[in-house]
Each structure stands twice: as structure tokens, then as C-alpha cells.
Amino acid sequence: MKVLVIGSGGREHALVWKLSQSKRVKKIFCAPGNAGTAEFAENVPIPADDIEAMLKFALKEKIGLTVVGPEAPLVNGIVDEFQKKGLRIFGPNAKAALIEGSKAFSKEVMAAAGVKTAAYKVIVGIDEAQMSLGDFEKAAVKADGLASGKGVFICNSKSEIMGAVNKLLQGKIFGDAGSRIVVEELLEGEEASILAFCDGKNVKLMVSSQDHKRIFDNDKGANTGGMGAYSPAPIVNGLEKKILQKVMLPVMKELAKRGAPYKGVLYAGLMIKGKDFKVLEFNARFGDPETQVVIPRLENDLVDVLEACIDGKLDKIDLKWREGSACCVVLASKGYPGEYEKGKEIQGLANAKAFKDVFVFHAGTKLENGRVLTNGGRVLGVTGLGKSIKEAIANAYTGVSQIDFEGMQFRHDIGKKALGRK
Ligand SMILES: Nc1ncnc2c1ncn2[C@@H]1O[C@H](COP(=O)(O)OP(=O)(O)O)[C@@H](O)[C@H]1O
Ligand SMILES: [Mg+2]
Asked: Which residue CA neighbors atom 20 of ligand 1 most closely?
């Protein structure tokens, strides 16, 4: 069959790479893709959020399976539009994707499903904020809608809280996405995430992972889209059963009850303290860079798994994972997550890839006259596999040492938290 992957990040490169190994796949398209996806797929210059053009293309090419990477097209109903035309597409429909598209909705679902999460209030106006935020000395103030991971303010005083509330409700820095806000108690602990395949009814957990959000070593500096990840995350060990039974399944049930059965990848962001955890948020898709450490460990044919989700037959699938660990180090442009330059030539890609158990997943890259150039903030993700996390980290950094471009920056401590943990 012909497969279309939507998106252009490291996540999509990892998905395209994995799909290329399926005997059932004859041809892969990636829209819009990057220089890495071009190796296995034909890149199509359609922006990921142009649902109409994407639909037209899929119909013309008779695409047998479309896989959606980013959240925006999901929340904007790409799955609904494709299904109306009889096309098979992997991901939640708009109603179910609201679990990521609206933080207020997500909180409401968690409350109804009895999922443990931070105490919260939903606020729509500045008067309401002044009246009802008195209890909060510290808080996470969040834009309700999609804000590309930039809509959350961690506030450590009443004045910081009101400052963030003002920016969102009056300054409208995220437009309508911030016209309703969620204010939460601050949780303490360590973050980790777990992704699950869902078919509307059944849930199969993937292996756990831990992202590194801050730009600098030791979790210092500004928040980013993610500077690296590793899998499995020892901090999640032993919690899987509870995550399945107290988080994933109740949420699935609650969404089905609301007429929005969830099909696709459900991503739970957790705050873990000892053997206890609370859910920070849900995403309606594969994570980036989590996918770059999870998917290389998956041994099943990905097409079988994705189709089982679409067809409600996930109970027939036995997920198999490669033993050991994976570690992904993100190489970013100088200045990221602030302003950065593009168009720098990348050296050493072939050398890095030549190492056994090293994969180079492209994010912001493009091909120009046979040269690979930087084309985004996060440029590459170098994944190393290994029998232990130590070996996986070593392999990832061996790959990194081969690569260079002007202004390249990366963290030197990806996976460090897992060392010494069982
Ligand atoms: N209640 C909370 N307590 C402590 N930290 C939080 C809380 N909510 C969010 N955060 C921090 O803010 C980050 C972003 O919040 P999240 O809800 O995941 O939104 P998004 O990923 O959409 O930006 C989290 O990864 C976490 O580090
Ligand atoms: Mg998040």
C-alpha cells in the first residue's frame, strides 16, 4: 500500500524510517518532510496544517494509510475529513483530540474519570481571575488551546500569577488559544512520559521515556521542544500497571462515553514522586523526541499496529520491544529556542550513520543541490541503541561527535538521570 506521513520533524523521520521496513508498504510520501525523510519517502510540499490540500493529494494518490505526526491537523479535524471520504487515517478525530487541544477539557475528562492530576480552576475573564485566584500562592498558568508548547507559565508568587493571567487574557499573546486559561497548583517531582496505542477501547502501553525540555545541561535555561530523550525511564518502572488501569483505560472509557472514542496514540505526561504520580497533561499524538527513542525499539510491523488501532483490533496485537535502551541527543541551531539562523551546511552525516546502533533522525533540515542544510531550530536527533542505558548514551554521543554545523548546540547530559537507577 501507499502510506502518507504528515509532518516534518524528527518524529516523522522516525515514523517514515520504521514504516519503510514494513513488507506491506510499497511507497511512502511525507508532507512536507525534510532531508532525512527524503531518503525513504517522496517529500510532498504541502504544509502539515493544510487539510484540504492533504485530502486532495491522498485521494489522487489513493493513499492506503495516512499517519498524522503533529497535533494541529488532528485538533483541526483532519481525521474527520479523511474518514468522510473513506480514507484510512491513524489518529484521533477532532472531538477526541480535544484532550490535547483544550487543557480545560482534558482536566474535566480527568476529573470525571478519576485520574489524579493537579487541582485547578478554569478562568475566562480578568474579573473572575481576580476573584477566584486568591488561594494560589504558586501556580502553573496555562493557555487553554494549542500554543506550540509555549503557553504555560510557572509562577512562584501571586504577582507572577496575575502577570501571566494578564498576558493571556488581556495581552492575548496566544489569541483565542489563551482566551480561556487553566490555573493549576504546582506539583513537585520528576517528569516522564508514556505513550500508548489506543483503538477506541483497548490500550497497549509503549515503553516509557523521559524528555529533556530545557536548553542547557542540568535542566537549566529556557524551555524547548525537547533537547533529547531516553527509553526506558527507570523512574516509571513498576508504575505501568497503575498507568494503564488508573489513567489510560479510565480516560478511554470517559471519552467513549462522551461520544469520542479515542483512536491513535495517547501520550500521558506524568509528574512522579516516589511511587506516586499525577498526570500533567495528555497529548494526542506521538511525542517528539520521545518517538525517536521508542519507535527504534519496536519490533512489530508498525502498519499492523496502526491498522489494529483504526480497526478496533488492538487486543490481537502483541507489542514486542527490543531489549536494552535508547538515547536521543538533539542537535540545535545557535540561538534556539530564541531566534536562530538557517541554511548552515551539515557535515558528517554519513559517518555518524555508519556506526552500528546509531540512527540520525532529521528535523529542521533541507536538501539543496545535494547538500544538507539546517532549516529549523531543532536540526537533528541522534539516537543510540545499547544493551544498557550507558551503552545507548555512549552510542548516541559517538554519533554526535561525527556531526558538525556552524553554531551547533546540544546537551551533554541526556540520559544521565537514568544512570545508577534500576
Ligand atoms: N501543575 C504543574 N506543576 C508543575 N509543573 C508543571 C505543571 N503543569 C505544567 N508544568 C510544567 O510545564 C510544562 C508544560 O506544561 P504542559 O501542561 O505539559 O503543557 P504544554 O506541553 O502544552 O506546554 C510541563 O512539562 C511541566 O514542566
Ligand atoms: Mg507538555
From this structure: 149
* C-alpha of residue 9 to centroid of ligand 2, in Å: 17
Residues 6+ apart with CB under 8 A from 377: 224, 225, 332, 333, 336, 337, 340, 364
Q: CA 359 to CA 276: how far, in whole Å?
A: 34
DSSP 218-253: GGEEEE-S-SEEEES-GGGTT-HHHHIIIIIHHHHH
Radius of gyration of the chain (CA): 21
Task: Return the number of other C-beta atoms located less than 10 Å from residue 314's C-beta.
Answer: 22
Q: Count CB-CB contacts under 10 A for residue 368.
A: 11
Scanning the structure block, which residue is given the C-alpha cell 494518490?
Answer: 61
Closest residue by Cα to residue 105 from 311, 262, 245 = 262
d(CA 88, CA 58): 10
Task: Name residue 75's amino acid.
Answer: V
Q: In this predicted model, what pLDDT tens digit does every residue of 208-227 receive, in sequence order?
A: 999 999 999 999 999 999 99
**Closest C-alpha to ligand 1, atom 17:** 281
Nearest CA to ligand 1 atom 12: 152
* pTM for the structure as a whole: 0.97
**Cα 282 to averaged position of ligand 2 atoms, centre (Å):** 8
- In the predicted model, residues of the chain with pLDDT beneath 70 are 422
CA of 74 to the centre of ligand 2 (A): 17
Question: Could you say which ligand is closest to the alpha carbon of residue 150?
Answer: 1
- How remote is the CA of residue 115 from the centroid of ligand 2, in Å? 17
Q: Pick from 18, 17, 108, 8: which is nearest to 300 by CA?
A: 18
pLDDT of residue 422: 67
Closest atom of ligand 1 relative to the 103 alpha carbon:
17
- Residues lining ligand 1, CB < 6 A? 118, 140, 142, 149, 151-152, 154, 184, 186-187, 191, 213, 269, 280-281
Cα of 353 to ligand 1 centre, how many Å? Answer: 34
Question: Which distant-in-sequence residues (6+ apart) come within 8 Å of 260 by Cβ?
Answer: 92, 93, 95, 96, 98
Question: From the CA of 75, which ligand is nearest?
Answer: 1
Q: Which residue has the cell 541551531?
A: 333
Q: What is the pLDDT of residue 286?
A: 98
Which of 365, 407, 406 has its CA nearest to residue 382? 365
Query: Rounded distance, CA 403 to CA 373, Å?
Result: 12
Q: Cα 137 vs. chain centroid, distance in angstroms?
A: 31
Half-sphere exposure of 184 (CA within 13 A, CB side): 24
